[in-house]
Design a protein that fits this description.
With 526 residues, the protein is α/β, with parallel strands linked by helices. It folds into 3 domains: 3-104, Arc Repressor Mutant, subunit A; 119-127 and 407-517, Alpha-Beta Complex (Aspartate Aminotransferase, domain 1), CATH 3.90.1150; 132-235 and 271-401, Aspartate Aminotransferase, domain 2 (3-Layer(aba) Sandwich), CATH 3.40.640.10. Helix content is 38%, strand content 13%. The chain contains 17 helices and 20 strands. The strands form 7 sheets. It has a 7-stranded mixed β-sheet with strand order 6-16-15-14-13-7-8, with helices on both faces. A 3-stranded antiparallel β-sheet has the order 17-18-20, covered by helices on one side. β7 (205-210), α9 (214-222) and β8 form a beta-alpha-beta unit. The longest helix has 22 residues, at 407-428. It is globular and about 65 Å long.
């Protein structure tokens, strides 16, 4: 079925687009382009006619005509019959365009390589854990000949990897057998299998935290499901946020009211609104709930066990399957204790991956669930693929069996990077409010004004790539937030923050933006 945007729908996605940093037609084209690259406007979607969009935005038709013409020239709109044009991606990539228009256009684009000379802050991912990964593949190659007589198809995954994953869950207090594990090509693949099995009907409701992981939101929408967002409380100094001063990954208490151990502050106040989640489960009765309780992406929060118990109980009462993304669980920067969600109920479905702990290039993930559900997932999986690469799975078994080998050094480096980034933000970007993460790979920042998309549009001009805050929400929310990964080395973090300062300075030079900065946000931000 053909998909089209109404003027009102596109206006909501655009948000505060006309900030005066460039001619209006250029600003309009920039933001529409970013919406397409971010996936918030899908491909082959009909945009409003020039006349109707001009009326809806209260601007001249000439401005819209010029913006659409620029987008067509750069390959982001295709001409259709009448006055409707459809979104697309340039076949040669957008980098052929010069200057401001060309450099931008990979900003935050999912799945697209970053151009040379651009620091990538759109992805929160680490390089491979070097020698550890190489050694695992060398061992896998010696084991491969024993499997070559077989066909190589296995929808559940190779036995050694499933057994290794099951043993790790058992050691964490969640008794698990290999029959309860299905190996996937990463956690995103796992989520798509789960969605196809549990929420395959169009319009099915899926509860999500708000903000949430962008690729999960994309998968939910692509499956035809309807996200039911439940806002997470905003961080407050002395609560879930951190108000101390960070140096080299260590925190010196400066007004933080939470517990402090050896100079290290932890966010134990609890960053989920369980009353709101319970109410949404009871009233909406979604078929599925997708949550990230372990170093939540993008906020980095860790859900306390007391809230985990409440959430499991509420999901059971509403008949909702609770799907828990544990991809970041190993990146526990401060050693905080927590219990895997599956320990509280056998009905919980857990998703895991080696992408964040070892390397995204491994494309090795898994689903842990009851045996009957695993069989249903395996049946659904065969409509997508017939199994994963065998060598990668054999290597994955070695990595899972020796999970702790690369982690101490990686966690130490991440702690240093976290402290460096938060301190740089405080020194160079006054007015920004970074939330101190318990773990994971990124810092969630509240901005002094709803300028997230504008920053993302200007970012390539100053040498960086960003994912705008609305990528992490539903309906254009989080225009006043930005996720900043601390996966780059400290010297590159310095360069990145200076670039952010430069981009903000350019926006502040606009009289229109100065008015935005001096007045409350146009819409409430969760």
């Amino acid at each position: 079925m053909s998909v089209s945007l109404t003027p009102g729908s596109l206006a909501r996605l655009l948000g505060e687009w006309n900030v005066g940093a460039a001619p209006a037609y250029r600003e309009l084209a920039d933001v529409v382009r970013l919406l397409i690259l971010d996936g918030r406007v899908g491909l082959d979607v009909a945009l409003p006619s020039e006349r109707s969009l001009a009326a809806g935005l209260g601007i001249s038709r000439t401005t819209v005509t010029a913006a659409y013409a620029l987008l067509r020239e750069q390959g982001f709109l295709s001409s259709g019959q009448g006055s409707r044009s459809r979104s697309c991606i340039p076949s040669q990539g957008p980098a052929h365009a010069g200057g401001h228009d060309g450099a931008l256009r990979l900003s935050g684009a999912p799945g697209l390589a970053v151009p040379d000379g651009i620091l990538d802050l759109a992805y929160a991912s680490l390089p491979a854990s070097g020698e550890v990964v190489h050694r695992a593949f060398a061992a896998a190659l010696t084991e491969l000949p024993a499997l070559l007589p077989g066909f190589g198809y296995d929808a559940l995954g190779v036995g050694p990897l499933r057994e290794a994953i099951a043993a790790r869950y058992t050691a964490a207090g969640v008794p698990t057998t290999a029959a309860q594990i299905l190996v996937t090509s990463g956690a995103q693949h796992a989520l798509n299998i789960v969605l196809r099995t549990l929420a395959g009907r169009s319009g099915t409701k899926v509860l999500v935290e708000h903000p949430s992981y962008p690729n999960a939101l994309d998968a939910i929408r692509a499956a035809g499901c309807r996200p039911v967002p439940v806002s997470m409380p905003a961080a407050t100094p002395g609560g879930t946020g951190h108000s101390g001063t960070a140096h080299g990954g260590r925190v010196h208490n400066a007004g933080h009211n939470g517990p402090v151990h050896n100079g290290l502050a932890h966010n134990n106040a609890g960053g989920w609104d369980l009353e709101a989640m319970e109410a949404a489960l009871l009233q909406q009765r979604p078929a599925m709930a997708y949550v990230v309780p372990d170093f939540h992406n993008p906020t980095g929060r860790l859900m306390p066990d007391s809230q985990r118990r409440r959430l499991v109980k509420a999901a059971a009462a509403s008949g909702t399957v609770l799907v828990v993304d544990e991809t970041l669980r190993e990146l526990n920067l401060d050693g905080a204790a927590s219990t895997p969600m599956a320990a509280f109920s056998p009905a919980v479905v857990s998703l895991g991956s080696l992408s964040k702990s070892h390397w995204a290039g491994l494309r090795t993930g898994w689903i842990r669930a009851s045996e009957p559900l695993i069989q249903r997932f395996a049946a659904a999986r065969t409509t997508l693929d017939l199994g994963g690469p065998v060598v990668e799975q054999l290597a994955g078994a070695h990595l899972v069996n020796a999970m702790t080998e690369p982690l101490p050094d990686r966690l130490a480096a991440l702690r240093e990077n976290r402290g460096t980034l938060v301190e740089l933000i405080r020194q160079r970007l006054p007015g920004w409010e970074p939330e101190w993460p318990d773990g994971g790979l990124s810092v969630w920042c509240r901005l002094p004004a709803p300028i997230s998309t504008a920053l993302a549009v200007l970012a390539p001009d100053v040498g960086i790539r960003l994912a705008a805050g609305p990528r992490f929400g539903v309906g254009g929310a989080f225009e006043q937030y930005l996720r900043l990964p601390f996966t780059l080395p400290p010297e590159q973090l310095v360069t990145a923050v200076l670039a952010l300062r430069s981009a903000q300075d350019r926006l502040e030079a606009s009289p229109q933006l100065r008015r935005n900065l001096s007045s409350p946000p146009a819409a409430a931000i969760a």
